[in-house]
Structure formats: C-alpha cells, structure tokens
Amino acid sequence: MCGIAGIISQDRSRVNSDNLQRMTDAIAHRGPDGEQQWINTSGTTGFGHRRLAILDLSSAALQPMHYLDRYTIVHNGEIYNYKELRDTLTKSGYRFRSKSDTEVILAAYSNYGRDCCKYFDGMFAFAIWDEQEQELFAARDRFGEKPFYYKADNSSLIFGSETKAILTLAPKQEIDPLQLLNFLTLGNSRKMVSDGRSIYQGIEELPAASTLSFNLRECKVEIRKYWELHKKIADNLNDDEVLNTFEQLYTKSIELRLRSDVSLGVSLSGGLDSSSIVAGIYEADKRPIKTYSAVFPGFSSDESAFISIINSRFGCESFTVTPGSADLVNDIKKLVWHQETFISSASVYAQYAVFKLAKETGTVVLLDGQGADEALGGYNKYIQWGLQEIYRGPAKSFREEFAKFRENNVPFDWSWKNKIAAYQPSLTALALQQRESGRVKKTNFLNRDYVTAHSPANKLPLKPGIRNLNDILHYETVESGLNELLHYADRNSMANGREVRLPFLSHELVSFIFTLPVRYKLRDGFTKWILRKAMHSRLPEQIAWRKDKIGFEPPQKIWMEMPAMQERIHESKKQL
Fold first, then answer.
1. Which pLDDT score, from 0 to 100, does residue 398 have?
2. Do residues 530 and 62 make contact, with C-beta atoms less than 8 angstroms apart?
3. Catalytic residue among 2, 116, 117, 316, which?
4. 239-376+474-561 in CATH: which number?
C-alpha cells in the first residue's frame, strides 16, 4: 500500500515538481519507505508516489513504473493473484524485470485493456498514463478498500489517495452541506459515496468497482462500472456442497493474503471473524502468529478473555493496547486530519491505536475480519430482515427459528410491523424513507434555514425495497455501511504506515455467499451460520458458537464524560 498523486493538464505550467512534491508531502504517511516523481517529456502529465514496500523490496519495484516505453503507473494496494497472472501473461509473450504486482498490472492493461480489472483479485487504486493515446486510465477495487479522489475541469485532472493531496493545489473547497446534514441528523458518515461524492464539494471519489478514463485532447471524465455483485439465490446445493465450497474459497483467500515480503499479523478482537482468520493462517501456513488487540479491563464489553482463548489455542504472540480518554484528547486532531470524514464512533480511535501498536512493534501488515458481518448477516439488526423472509414460508419453519433466537437470548426487533413488511417491502422502504426525512426536518439543534435548504427527501439516500435478507446485506455491502468501515480502516492503517488486508472481501468468496439462501446465514438461532459451521472444528466452541455480539466497542460514554474531553468539546464549540 502506498500514496499516489498525479496531474494531467493541457496547461504545462501546472505540471511541475513543486506541485507534485506538495501533493506527495501531504500523504507522506502512506509511504514511509521512499518517494519518486515522474513528468513526461511533453510536460503534460506528472505522477508522484510514496512507497510502503510490501512485495519486492528492491529498486526494481519503484514507482512511478514504466512499461513498453508507453505506459507509466502509480499504484496503491495489492494484487493478491499476481503470481498466477504473471504466469499467464508470460505465456502470452510478456516479460517482467521485477517481482512486483505493479508490473503485472501494466502487462495486464497492455494485454486486456480496460477489462484488466476483471482479472485482479485484490485491493487497489491505480492510475496508468498511456503516452501513445494521451489518456489516463484509473481504477478502484470492487469494494472500495483503497481510495481514489480526483478533481477535473475542462483542461486538467488531478488525483490523489486522499483529498488532502488535492487540497494542496485546490485549497478552497467547501464541505458538502448535504453530507454534513446527513451526519449531524442521522449519524451517517459515508452514505453518499456510491454516487461519487467526497466530503468536499468539487472533489469526487471514484466509486468502487469502477474505472476512470480521461483523454487529454478532450478533457472529459468517463466512469465505467466493471463489476457487479449479484444476489440471485442458487438453492440447488446441499449443506455438504455449500460448506465445502465456502471452506475452499475462504482458505484460498487466506493463502493469497499471506503473500508478503514483510512481517504479518492479525487484528484480533476476540470475535468470530478475526478468530477465524487466526485459525485460517494457522492451518494454511503454520507460521508463528502475532496478534494485535485493543482491550479495556473492567469495561463491560471488554473481550480480553476471548482474545486470550484464541492466543492460547494457537500459540500466538499477543500485543495489546488500552487507549484511554487522555490518549483520545491528545490524538483527536491528528485522527480527524487523517480520516478526512465525519467520525461516528470512538471505535475508530481504538482501531487507530491498534495500528499504532503494530508500527511500534515492527509488524507491517495486519489481516482483519471486516466485511464478514455485512456479507454473512452478522449484526443482530439483520435478524428481523431474515425472519421476515422466513415468515413468508412455512409457518412451522418461522416459529422454530424465531424460538431458537429467543432461546439464545439474541436481541432483535420484531412486531406486527415486521409481518406487514414481509409482504410489503416497497411500502416499508417508503415508510423508512419518510421517517428519516422527518428526523432530519425535526432536528432542533441546527439552523432551520440550513435544514430546509438541504433536507428534501429526494436528496437523501433512497431506502431499498427489502424482500429477502440478501437485499439488505447487498445494500450494506455495496452502498451503505461497509464503505464507512473500509474508509476508517484505510486511514487508520495508513496513518501509521501499515497495510490492512481483508480475507472476507475476496470477491469470489463474497459472490458465492450472495448466492446462498437465508438458511446458510441464519439458522438454529445463530447468525453467520455457514462460517460458524466451517469453524466448528477449528475454533473453541465458546468462540465459534458465541451467542453475544459485542463488536469493536470501547468505553465511549466514559471517554466522552471525562473532564479533559468535555473541555476539548467546549473549546471546539467556541470556534463554530
């Protein structure tokens, strides 16, 4: 993972080393291992790169990287299946001078053109300049793990891994008022991303699973979607076949994400997802595993006991950190500067502290369990949606599943409204939309003129019509929910010059999960049933079949009530 930046302009005075240096200086934290610049001979295109060396630590892998005297690339991320792709491309006549995945991207683009992204299994954001066609081609991974921001006008385009790189050349950007209203009234920090909005007006974010083309002669931006996550159910498999396929895809994802020329570890929360990653690494590699955890002794949601169970079971070397209110007060400005968005939970800071600990102890890459809850239906809020789907089937099946969730003391909402929603998803979506719009309009702590100007329902994200569990999981995976967590994870890891890898976001694995009917996600009073079943013999029972769902939860209320934090809040209010 790295930091990338670039300028493409008909005005050659804009493309210079000073501007590129300013851009890369702003994102220097993303690449502590070196920096490079490149400007083409005609002076219309310049790239800057900050390197975090992960694969091929030699100078042969330096960026900007050139290929076939035609293409130049800057790349942030990892292509996990680069070895297999390199073998395929070698058979087609391509040659390589490095062992990096970046060079494989260049060869793939030369061979497959704009379709190259369909062949990548990875997290990535890259930009390729084609000197022959005088065209920029950029792309972002399927789920948006890696960021790509840009600002374009009728003569130029500038881009960067973070908005702060763009702000060095275009500093007068205003916060998007609708984004701000959405956060202050509904608590949503990333609801608008799927339509290309950033937090700033005038700076766009390339949507996930999309490519961007910008021809210097025409100076027009063209965005294309190269991948869609489908949710059509394939109900023709039995349990053994489903379990076997799931295990194969999960194991493959783990193995690919262990490819590294630097040290690796696991961000371990003590929950099912991160524990499953530890088990997967142990089974696939047998290497000593370092785990990194935030613990909060004495707090009701502390998961130290579960973390200890996993570390003991697999002989892990454990590193823990206990961030506190004083730490948050000291780091809050730095955290906000790195995040470049609204922060909805103190868990963001706990995650930051974990990556900081990894930096202090010399581990460069951490594997993390994000994405599992959204794809597999892990949050308790999904239970009602799954039960609504089951409710439309045989009454006995519904009664049995409902009773098992109650027996397991799993909290979830259920009333007569859910029974109506089961048969009227469109009306339910409309009602939820109207409820959110009403919450915005009834807000009493904001200027009424501001609320009126930005709160029409047609400006808020539309609620989907949810008929099946897959509908809400698809919405949260692709449009709203997961993108917020991915943003936090990228900024927290990169703030500390670390890389985060997410095995549950293998596109092959996620695509398979979305073909599965509800019974493989909710069964016997448990969420994420297929993952629990796969881990039944690999994890201790108290982990694999935990009935509580804590999440990554620090003592936020306690932190916010501490005098030092209250003082910081009041100081900030005075500046508004």
1. 94
2. no
3. 2
4. 3.40.50.620
